[in-house]
Design a protein that fits this description.
The complex is a heterodimer of chains A (693) and B (557). Chain A is α+β, with helices and mostly antiparallel strands and 693 residues long. Chain A has 23 helices and 22 strands. In chain A, the strands form four sheets. In chain A, strands 10-22-21-20-11-18-19 form a seven-stranded mixed sheet, sandwiched between helices. The longest helix of chain A is centred in the C-terminal third of the chain and has 39 residues, at 568-606. With 557 residues, chain B is an all-alpha fold. Chain B has a two-stranded antiparallel sheet with strand order 1-2. A two-stranded antiparallel sheet of chain B has the order 3-4. In chain B, a hairpin with a 2-residue loop joins strand 3 (403-404) and strand 4 (407-408). In chain B, helix 6 (129-159) packs parallel to helix 8 (222-231), helix 9 (252-276) packs parallel to helix 12 and helix 14 (378-397) packs across helix 15. The radius of gyration of chain B is 23 Å and the shape is globular. The two termini of chain B are 34 Å apart. The chains are: A alpha+beta (693), B mainly alpha (557). At the A-B interface, helix 7, helix 21 and helix 23 of A face helix 14, helix 15, helix 17 and helix 19 of B. Chain A: Mg(2+) binds at residues 529, 533. Chain A: It is a multi-pass membrane protein. Chain A: It catalyses: K(+)(out) + ATP + H2O = K(+)(in) + ADP + phosphate + H(+). Chain A: InterPro entries: ATPase_P-typ_cyto_dom_N (IPR023299), ATPase_P-typ_P_site (IPR018303), ATPase_P-typ_TM_dom_sf (IPR023298), ATPase_P-typ_transduc_dom_A_sf (IPR008250), ATPase_P-type_domA (IPR059000), HAD-like_sf (IPR036412), HAD_sf (IPR023214), P-type_ATPase_bsu_IA (IPR006391).
């Protein structure tokens, strides 16, 4: 998973998800918070860990009444189990807190210059601003609150929010009008209309989000919690029933042993890590500079069936570029290249620069104007002539060179040219834009001759085709949205390898498409930045608004991308999937662990009654006490061992569901069965050395 | 022909026969429940009980129908038994010269209405023909039809989209009885009579045995009850010895047919499911899971009986105690595994005398939740609920909100599935734990130690799973056993039914999500392994401690 497609050499390569550094120091730093969470009220949120908490209390009381090395050790390790679970959550939250802290620094007290009805300024505290107030901000001043620029244009430093140091331009009207409180105006003067109440600004919401203060359980998390609670009930019954059954068979089981069995059986591993997984999922988004307004949105991202992607800037580079030179009428390629270069030397549009670059790259011509050329008279493009070019001085041949729209250049040359028409049509059909190059003896077009045609194309970003193939493998359909005519749209869609495209799209078309997909039961994701995108962003299941966009767009979407990178949608989908996979994998692992624990604890409990059950002690654990203690210790340690995985997330590779399932079942299902057999065996080697065990 | 070869041929023939009818019979049942047309006799019935057959019901109304019908049934069967002295064809039967005592009557009423057919009474001395025919045989039909109706309602939940209606209980109940159970039972009852099963309203015949002693052989309308006893996975025999009695199961062919009958509906309902959700491979996967578990259990039990670890049995060459010599080990095991796997509970051999291994298999077969292949209807709604749990975990592991057959599995679905799965272990563990803690239980047991415990555990497993087979060796006529076992039967039946219907309602409301490459495929081998694994794992984790103290300890000694 990479941030920027343009920087990505091999798109199919496995993309490591940056975990954010996880270090043992974080564990140590989180211990005080973990201790605070021993409060039973904090435990009630999590039914599985609450049972462990109650068990710890019971065993401790029992150890006080009937002290023994064994019962004290079990009590100790049960408390450690609870502590480790708290630790997992505290570490996950700790990372968010650090981010919240840096955000909070941007929220310093500001004084706003509010305009009253008559246009006079008054100074008020930033916290006293109301929605609709107009404030003036000048160079060097912080913007007091979220709003839209209604007057002026300014460069703004948004690094406090985005981490991006390059200033951005904000201006009244259009799609670049929104400003965020806490950012600083670097130049000029703007008037901002406040759109958000103090305390509910973007930065405030961000802080609440990364701190996890407003964290609510997501639908899928709730369903999983219910399943875990059901499993806990089953195991509680199984353990409770053991007491009379064992008594009947001839041996009373101590409360300590029964509690130890219960704690080992209930899914403590996933129970302990569940909330950490959720927090870490949000955190991974934040690290990629994406803010989700709810965990629900992150989860929905994993379920996306259809991705709507804007063509320009997402699938293609923003500008058309020269990709080919096609000579006509006996002109050589070299001649055409020279003429094309000359005509574009002074053309500072992206298209013009790309022509010079193409000539330099493929024909070895100078990339800059030489000293002699620099004195030539350049003819700029106008809407009337629809051509640009150059009139060379006599010492360079005195020729006039022009390039421009086919009809304009052909008119300049004064003669129809079938060969040119054919090439022009061919380029248009392929979704490109043709520019015709001609030279003449005079600026008026005397003795003019067409040299050839330059093909300008929308260049699809490298790696997109592979990316869409990956998405297809994941079961996600991509739809390209463009304002281009159907012919052009079709050609680019075919080149990029998207599944479908929507040409000449209006905001209404986009909305209709989203609704149609949703009626078929599909979940739709899209990006947008303009005010007219707002309804579609709100309708989409995952709507990612660009931070450069209007505040209406940001309000409507359920995520904001601070980097304003539309391709990030693909990563968001992967993060959503990773979140669910991590939950499923650790649940499977947790349940699969139970088998080994049974083989450790049951023979230990019953071997005195039925010596034949000693055959179940396949790990050859030393004594009944060491067996039970080893299982409890393993159960606690596995939580800490899996904290990094919970925070980082299970590795995700885009592939079909069947492949993913096979892989994860093997690792976490089979691995979950085998690992504890080895772990408990090894722990027992140490535990048996403790005197009295 | 060796015993083993004969056994293998019998298994092969059984599987072949079931495979042959799977598709046509499964599709027939799908048509029965999907058809718009009512038969004339059905319309007459609807008019009689004033039911609007064209009105579809919400899940809550459907559930109210199930509960109401079952409640009335329990009351009627209870009253029939209590009033036996006033009914014709009573032959003066009862307990200690009186009518059926209250606790026993309640237990029996619950037992037959819940499709359990647990029998705490000795049929040929306690019940007369009127109670047998008007009470028990009727319930054999309708309790089976109720189970099938619930299964079909759940399947409709998957098949339908964007509606809150899951069918009409009265229509499903009537059609299941009239179009499926009655015709097949009618044919097979006649076949049974032809093979020597008795069918008589006489109390019995007096005979002089070869040693000159006088005996009364009780007769009964057995053939008509025998067919539905197996077909409806009921299992309540008209003789105490059940299918080990030559009047119920006279020869090897009748034994074979009885096994076929008790498997045919649960097995074919998987096809009905596949056809109704318009993806027959989905049904094929489920039937494969059921079939593999069944086959493995047959093999394990067979091996355990063939190579027993007791001295006496080893001397005899195989564990023959408690088996009919005319049937032998393979036919007994085949019957035993099929009957415990289908919630039938009929027996042709004494499970109590099985080796620890085979007895444990019979018990585990029930503790899986009756899904291999399970009771009529109960098997399919049982395995669908387990499949939902499997899909939920596996679905998470492919990175999507889990979906099964295009329906998303969220809070409501997991809650209802969890309740359905929780019911049985709760009843078994609390029941067995409570019973074994009581001093009076020790008096009711014929055996001590691990075997004695197995008898108690088996009783509650049988009741809570609505199986009805008895391990025997335990006297269950005390009020404690009569009432707690009845409660286990009631909750073991109706909690999963209510949960399944609620699940059906929530599923029917959902729009179907089209499947794509990112959707977990639920029609392949991988998914089959997953569901089978879930079934085994859930049962193993829940009952490992209890089984360790009973059959496992016994098998290892």
């Amino acid at each position: 998973m990479t941030i920027d497609l343009q920087e990505r050499p091999t798109p199919a390569a496995p993309a490591p998800v940056s975990a954010g550094a996880f270090s043992p120091q974080q564990l140590v730093a989180s211990i005080p918070e973990a201790l605070r969470k021993l409060d039973p009220r904090a435990q009630l949120r999590n039914p599985v860990m609450f049972v462990v908490w109650v068990g710890s209390v019971v065993v401790t009381v029992f150890a006080i009444i009937q002290p023994s090395v064994f019962s004290w050790l079990i009590a100790l390790w049960l408390w450690i189990t609870v502590l480790f679970a708290n630790l997992a959550e505290a570490v996950a939250e700790g990372r968010g807190k650090a981010q919240a802290e840096s955000l909070r620094r941007t929220k310093r007290e500001t004084v706003a210059r509010r305009l009253d009805g008559s246009g006079a300024e008054e100074r008020v505290a930033g916290t006293d601003l109301r929605v609709g107030d107009l404030v003036v901000v000048e160079a060097g001043e912080p913007i007091p609150g979220d709003g839209d620029v209604v007057e002026g244009i300014a460069t703004v430093d948004e690094s406090a929010i985005t981490g991006e140091s390059a200033p951005v331009i904000r201006e009244a009207g259009g799609d670049r009008s929104s400003v965020t409180g806490g950012t600083t105006v670097l130049s000029d003067r703007i008037v901002v209309r406040i759109t958000t109440k103090p305390g509910e600004t973007f930065v405030d919401r961000m802080i609440a989000l990364v701190e996890g203060a407003s964290r609510q359980k997501t639908p899928n998390e709730i369903a999983l919690t219910i399943l875990l609670a059901a499993l806990t009930i089953i195991f509680l019954l199984a353990v409770v029933a053991v007491a009379p059954m064992s008594s009947y068979a001839g041996q009373q089981q101590s409360l300590t042993v029964l509690t130890a069995l219960l704690v080992c059986l209930i899914p403590t591993t996933i129970g302990a890590l569940l909330s950490a997984i959720g927090i870490a999922g949000m955190d991974r988004l934040v690290q990629r500079n994406v803010l989700a307004t709810s965990g629900r949105a992150v989860e929905a991202a994993g379920d996306i069936d259809t991705l709507l992607l804007d063509k320009t800037g997402t699938i293609t580079f923003g500008n058309r570029q020269a990709t080919e030179l096609l000579p006509v009428g006996g002109a050589s390629l070299r001649e055409l290249a020279e003429a094309a270069r000359l005509s574009s030397l002074a053309d500072q549009t992206p298209e013009g620069r790309s022509i010079v670059a193409l000539c330099a790259r493929e024909h070895g011509l100078p990339g800059e104007a030489t000293a002699a050329e620099a004195v030539a008279e350049f003819v700029a493009f106008t809407a009337q002539t629809r051509m640009s070019g150059v009139d060379l001085t006599a010492n360079l041949g005195g020729l006039s060179v022009r390039k421009g729209a086919a009809s304009a250049v052909v008119r300049w040359t004064g003669a129809e040219n079938r060969e040119v028409d054919a090439i022009v049509d061919e380029i248009s059909d392929g979704g490109g834009t043709p520019l015709v190059v001609a030279e003449a003896a005079s600026p008026q077009g005397a003795d003019a001759r067409v040299l050839g045609v330059i093909r300008l194309s929308d260049v699809v970003k490298p790696g997109m085709r592979e990316r869409f193939a990956e998405l297809r493998a994941m079961g996600i359909r991509t739809v390209m949205i463009t304002g281009d005519n159907p012919r052009t749209a079709k050609a680019i869609a075919a080149e990029a390898g998207v599944d479908d495209h929507l040409a000449e799209a209006t905001p209404e078309d986009k909305m209709a498409l989203i609704k149609k997909e949703q009626e078929g039961g599909r979940l739709v994701a899209m990006t947008g930045d303009g005010t007219n995108d707002a309804p579609a962003l709100a309708q989409a299941d995952v709507g990612v608004a660009m931070n450069t966009g209007t505040s209406a767009a940001k309000e409507a979407g359920n995520m904001v991308d601070l980097d304003s990178d539309p391709t990030k949608l693909i990563e968001i989908v992967e993060i959503g999937k990773q979140l669910l996979i991590t939950r499923g994998a650790l649940t499977t692992f947790s349940i699969a662990n139970d088998l080994a624990k049974y083989f450790a604890i049951l023979p230990a409990m019953f071997v005195a009654i039925y010596p034949s059950l000693g055959a179940l002690n396949i790990m050859h654990l030393a004594t009944p006490q060491s067996a039970i203690l080893s299982a409890v210790i393993f159960n606690a340690l596995i939580i800490v061992a899996l904290i990094p995985l919970a925070l980082r997330g299970v590795r995700y590779r885009p592939t079909t569901a069947a492949n993913l399932l096979r892989r994860n079942l093997l690792i976490y299902g089979l691995g979950g069965v085998v690992t504890p057999f080895i772990g408990i065996f090894l722990i027992d080697l140490l535990v048996r050395l403790i005197p009295g065990i | 022909m060796s015993d083993t070869l004969a056994g293998l041929l019998q298994v092969g023939a059984l599987v072949l026969l079931l495979a042959l009818v799977w598709k046509p019979f499964g599709d027939y049942m799908a048509r029965v429940y999907s058809s718009e047309k009512h038969w004339r006799v059905e319309r007459a019935l609807y008019r009689l009980v004033r039911v609007d057959a064209s009105a579809e019901q919400r899940w809550s109304t459907y559930a109210a129908g199930v509960l109401g019908f079952s409640f009335v049934s329990i009351v009627l069967v209870y009253l029939l038994q209590r009033l036996q002295p006033f009914l014709p064809l009573g032959f003066g039967r009862g307990v200690n010269g009186d009518t059926v005592p209250a606790a026993m009557a309640f237990n029996t009423a619950v037992s037959f209405v819940t499709n359990t057919n647990w029998q705490s009474y000795v049929p040929e001395t306690v019940l007369g023909d009127t109670v047998q025919m008007a009470g028990l045989t009727v319930q054999n039909f309708v309790s089976a039809a109720v189970g099938m109706a619930v299964a079909i309602a759940l399947v409709r939940g998957f098949a339908r989209s964007g509606t809150d209606r899951i069918g009409n209980f009265w229509v499903d109940l009537t059609r299941g009885t009239v179009r499926i159970l009655l015709p097949i039972s009618f044919v097979f009852a006649i076949v049974m009579v032809a093979m020597g099963v008795v069918m008589s309203l006489r109390s019995g015949v007096n005979i002089t045995a070869v040693d000159g002693t006088q005996h009364t052989l009780p007769l009964a309308p057995a053939a008509s009850q025998e067919a539905i006893k197996e077909l409806g996975t009921n299992g309540g025999g008209i003789y105490n010895a059940n299918s080990a009695h030559p009047f119920e199961n006279p020869n090897a062919l009748s034994n074979f047919l009885e096994i076929f009958l008790l498997l045919v509906i649960p097995v074919s309902l998987t096809r009905t499911f596949g056809t109704m959700v318009r993806n027959t491979r989905q049904g094929l996967v489920l039937v494969s899971v059921m079939g593999v578990i069944w086959a493995v259990f047959v093999a394990l039990a067979w091996l355990s009986e063939r190579f027993p670890n007791g001295a006496a049995a080893q001397a005899a060459g195989a564990a023959m105690e408690g088996k009919e010599v005319r049937l032998g080990i393979p036919s007994s095991i085949l019957f035993g595994v099929s009957t415990t796997g289908t919630s039938t509970g009929a027996v042709n051999s004494t499970l109590d005398s099985y080796t620890g291994g085979a007895g444990g298999i019979a018990m585990l077969n029930m503790l899986l939740g009756e899904v291999a292949p399970g009771g009529v209807g109960a098997g399919i709604y049982g395995i669908l609920v387990l499949a939902i749990i499997a899909v939920f975990l596996a679905g998470l592991m492919v990175g999507r909100t889990p979906e099964y057959l295009g329906k998303k599995l969220g809070r409501v679905q997991i809650t209802t599935a969890a309740i359905s799965i929780l019911a049985m272990p709760t009843l078994v563990l609390i029941g067995a734990g409570l019973a074994i803690a009581l001093p009076s239980t020790l008096n009711a047991l014929n055996n001590g130690g691990e075997h004695g415990f197995s008898e108690v555990l088996y009783a509650y497993a049988s009741a809570a799973n609505n199986n009805g087979s008895a391990f025997a060796g335990i006297t269950v006529t005390s009020d404690f056993f009569q009432s707690t076992l009845a409660i286990a039967m009631l909750f073991g039946r109706f909690v999963p039914i209510l949960a399944s219907l609620a699940l059906a309602g929530s599923l029917a409301k959902q729009r179907r999500v089209p499947a794509g490459a990112g959707t977990l495929p639920t029609d392949g081998v991988l998914f089959g392994v997953l569901v089978g694994g879930t079934v085994l794992l859930v049962a193993a984790l829940t009952f490992f401690p209890a089984l360790a103290l009973g059959p496992i300890a016994e098998a290892l000694s």
